[in-house]
Each structure stands twice: as structure tokens, then as C-alpha cells.
Specification:
Low-confidence stretches: none
Mean pLDDT: 83
Order of helices and strands: HHHHHH
Helix content: over 70%
Radius of gyration: 17 Å
Structural class: mainly alpha
Distance between the termini: 62 Å
Largest sheet: none
Strand content: under 5%
Shape: elongated
Length: 110
Amino acid sequence: MADQERELAIHPIVQECVQHNNQTIANIRSLTASLFGVAAGILGLESYSGFVFYILGTLFVSALIYAVLAEGKQGRYFERPVRDLWAGEVVGGLWGFVMTWTLFYGLVRA
């Protein structure tokens, strides 16, 4: 426990910064989920292939956030890096993906 206390004393967690980082990630995820939905609809993906496209796209975006925004130091910018960066807002973005996927699939195939 002493190591954790020492780490917090050296690098304190500022709650406003953590909230800002989480909000930024949520905005990026919702925007890219809609863009992936547009792409899946235009490509005419159906069923599991569309959801696999979404999962792969989300992992790709997480890798870009890790490499570009977090500069490879996810623990420095997020309180719970695995949950906040890699798994957070995946389900929330799914609804936007499905809505734009079905819209553009219907527009292209109609």
C-alpha cells in the first residue's frame, strides 16, 4: 500500500482531468461508431460481419488513441486504463453504429 500512496503523492490524480479524458474518449467513440455504421451500410454488410466490422474498428480506434493521444502511456492519463481506454463506451457506441448501419444499408439497397 505504501507504493501506491507514494505514486499518488508523486503523480496525483486530478479528477477534472480524468473526467475530461473520459469525455474525450466518449466523443471519439460515438463519432467513429456512426462512421463505421455508414461504412458498413455502404459496404452492404449483414449480420455477424457487420458486428465484427464494428468490433475490429473499435479496437483499431482504441489502438490509435493509445498510440497518438495517450502517447503509449495510458496509465498516466486514465485512472483505470483497461476499462476506460479499451472497453469503455463500446456498448454505448453500438447503438449509433446500428442506427447508421441500417439507415445507409436501406438507402444503398433501396
